[in-house]
Design a protein that fits this description.
Layout lengths: L2 E7 L3 H11 L7 E8 L2 E8 L2 H7 L10 E7 L14 E2 L5 E6 L5 H10 L10 H11 L4 H11 L4 E7 L6 E6 L4 E4 L3 E5 L11 E4 L4 E6 L2 E5 L5 E2 L4 E2 L4 H5 L6 H7 L1 H9 L3 E2 L2 E2 L8 H5 L3 E6 L1 H18 L3 E5 H4 L10 E7 L5 H12 L3 E6 L5 H5 L2 E4 L12 H21 L4 H22 L2 H9 L6 E6 L2 H17 L2 E6 L16 E6 L5 H12 L4 E7 L11 E5 L7 H19 L18
Parallel strand pairs: 18-19, 18-20, 20-21, 21-22, 23-24, 23-25, 25-26, 26-27
Antiparallel strand pairs: 1-4, 1-10, 2-3, 2-4, 5-6, 6-7, 7-8, 8-12, 9-10, 9-11, 11-15, 12-13, 13-14, 16-17
Bound molecules: 5-amino-5-deoxy-1-O-phosphono-D-mannitol (M6R).
């Protein structure tokens, strides 16, 4: 996730910017840059790679003696990691410079309009649009230009802005991306997160949506979007640097779980236009979509589990046959690829060796390959014919949570798009799915807020030896992911079974007190699932059920019930997985395991 730092004060800005950016390194980044106002000019340096490269280029900031500046670490979203795409971004005559965290959803529309007005673009970023848009509306008054662009931009943004004509001022504004400001002993500082400012102040102002801040060496003024001044109270930060990096959360995994509502919104909102699904990056005409004969989903670990859900959703909605493969199996099984095959490779890192090999194999056999990838510019993103990015931001915990949730959203969107074009669902049905999707972020948040109840339940199972997860259909896919989450971070043996398979062997493992987590979100399968729950319960199992609100019958077959809010049959995974993530997390915490870095595991598996 991008990191922003800005400073105006008595001291040279550049070393403070570099120091602050260093404190934001944990957020993940691929390039960095700074811009400083000095002697009537804005000077800038930026570079792909580690912050060290930028420090060397600027001699630790010494080459820029100015006292007003902005800095940025970039996590690529629009455009691959490169010097040109790195922030800050200038307008044409280098009189306005911007750093940005977030996604401007309507940037293509804005870019087109600006090009028509004669503006030239040198990067692939959405941020450069902001610099030119400010230029277009700037007639000597920065505040008015900022307010004008706020009315034009859709999406999320935290911005730090400098105007050459106002060399003593630093501007900041935000919507749906975090930004804090604070007074230092000799000036003002802005940052996207607390660790960057802790060395300079512990009293910070959290900028709210659509608030603007104008800072000078000795003043800080807050305004709303109507340019009316606002009074704000600072918050005193008690956290140490380590806690601050995690935003006050005990672990990155918990922080990332809490980032899910935002990440989900960022993934779907640029792709829903009114009552239409627009996935521009798919680059497939309606005719090509109509000609898809088969979809092959290939991935590893949790990404594979997202793919299993994708199979049910794509087949159910779009009526296209789907095969799902583990990449490590696919690459050696000599798969049959006929004309009209679309291969979807799902990967958070975009670097998983088996998934990359499967991609190459599939292309060689003549399939069109779509990557569903989180890391922009990664190998899978580069080698796929087309890429649909999940906008989860960097994920630091080894156990994936938010990236997995965004992979599900990407697959739902593809299913909706294909179903729309192939007319396998009506416009009314599509409208209903769109409304349901827009509700997911709030529903996820609600489930996350139930964490205390799940923690209490988890604490009863810290000594568990085996846990079984059972479900049918999509619920089997949820069970696979719930089980993987638990075993990878708590080291408790756990298995996921298609509930109907129990009686073919697994049921012999059920003993008095064995925990069985039963997932039932598919109404048409309730009765079948309840029979399976009774089967294990009569053999001594303790049954935890995750089911839809309103399924009161469940109490007859379960010992403990967690309800998920109402959604349609296809999107239930996005909700049911939240209590299972929390369950795994609290077991791991309770057992004192290394939650974010479980033993023997790496975040990115670049070897076979
Ligand atoms: O980066 P990828 O999505 O390709 O990674 C795939 C798996 O290695 C990954 O999902 C792994 O299973 C996670 N540790 C699960 O939490």
């Amino acid at each position: 996730m991008c990191g922003i730092v800005g400073y105006v004060g008595k001291r040279p800005a550049a070393p403070i910017l570099l120091d602050g950016l260093g404190k934001l390194e944990y957020r993940g980044y691929d390039s960095a840059g700074i811009a400083v106002c000095d002697s009537g000019k804005i000077q800038m340096k930026k570079a792909r790679g580690r912050l060290k490269v930028l420090s060397e280029l600027t001699h630790d900031g010494e080459i820029f003696p100015g006292h007003v500046g902005i800095g940025h670490t970039r996590w690529a979203t629009h455009g691959e990691p490169s010097d040109v795409n790195a922030h800050p971004h200038f307008n044409a005559d280098n009189s306005i410079v911007v750093v940005h965290n977030g996604i401007i959803e309507n940037y293509l529309k804005l870019k087109k309009k600006l090009i028509e007005k004669g503006y030239k673009f040198i990067s692939d970023t959405d941020t450069e649009v902001i610099a030119h848009l400010l230029d277009y509306y700037y007639h000597g008054n920065p505040m008015q230009a900022i307010i004008k662009i706020m009315h034009r931009m859709e999406g999320s943004y935290a911005l730090g802005i400098l105007f050459k004509d106002h060399p003593e001022e630093l501007y900041a504004v935000r919507k749906d991306s975090p930004l804090i400001v604070g007074h230092t002993r000799d000036g003002c500082i802005i940052a996207s997160d607390v660790p960057a400012v802790l060395k300079y102040t512990r009293d910070v102002y959290f900028i709210e949506n659509e608030e603007i801040v104008c800072m000078r060496q000795d003043s800080m003024e807050f305004f709303n979007v109507d340019e009316e001044p606002i009074e704000k109270e600072p918050t005193h930060i008690e956290w140490d640097v380590d806690a601050a990096e995690k935003g006050g959360y005990e672990h990155f995994m918990l922080k990332e779980m809490y980032e899910q509502p935002r990440a989900i919104t960022d993934t779907f909102s640029p792709r829903i236009k009114g009552r239409e699904i627009c996935i521009e990056e798919l680059a497939m005409s309606d005719e090509e979509i109509l000609n898809i004969k088969k979809i092959m989903i290939v991935a590893c670990g949790s990404a594979y589990h997202a793919g299993v859900t994708g199979k049910y959703v794509l087949e159910g909605m779009a009526r296209i046959p789907v095969e799902v493969d583990l990449a490590s199996e696919y690459r050696y099984r000599n798969p049959l690829i006929e004309e009209g095959t679309l291969t979807i490779i799902i990967s958070q890192s975009g670097e998983t060796a088996d998934s990359l090999a499967a991609l190459r194999d599939s292309r060689e056999r003549g399939a069109k390959v779509l990557g569903v990838v989180n890391v922009v510019g990664s190998s899978i993103a580069r080698e796929a014919d087309n890429v649909m990015y999940t906008w989860a931001g960097p994920e630091i915990a080894v156990a994936t949570t938010k990236a997995y949730s965004c992979q599900l959203i990407a697959l739902y969107l593809l299913a909706m798009k294909f179903a729309q074009v192939r007319k396998t669902i009506s416009d009314t049905e599509l409208g209903g799915y769109i409304e349901d999707m827009k509700r997911i972020p709030d529903q996820v948040e609600m489930l996350l807020n139930n964490k205390n109840r799940i923690q209490k339940f988890a604490n009863r199972y810290l000594a568990a030896r085996d846990v079984f997860f059972i479900g049918r259909g999509i619920d089997y896919a949820i069970s696979l992911e719930g089980s993987l989450k638990l075993k990878e971070i708590s080291y408790i043996h756990s298995e996921a079974y298609a509930a109907g398979e129990l009686k073919h062997g697994t049921i012999s493992l059920i003993e008095e007190g064995t925990l069985v987590a039963a997932v039932l979100t598919q109404e048409n399968l309730y009765k079948k699932m309840i029979s399976n729950m009774v089967e294990v319960r009569t053999r001594g199992a303790f049954v935890l059920a995750v089911t839809n609100e309103g399924n009161h019958e469940i109490r007859k077959a379960a010992d403990y019930v967690i309800y998920i809010p109402e959604t349609n049959q296809y999107f239930t995974n996005s909700l049911a997985i939240i209590p299972l993530q929390l369950f795994a997390y609290y077991i791991s915490v309770g057992k004192g395991c290394d939650v974010d870095k479980p033993r023997n595991l790496a975040k990115s598996v670049t070897v076979e």
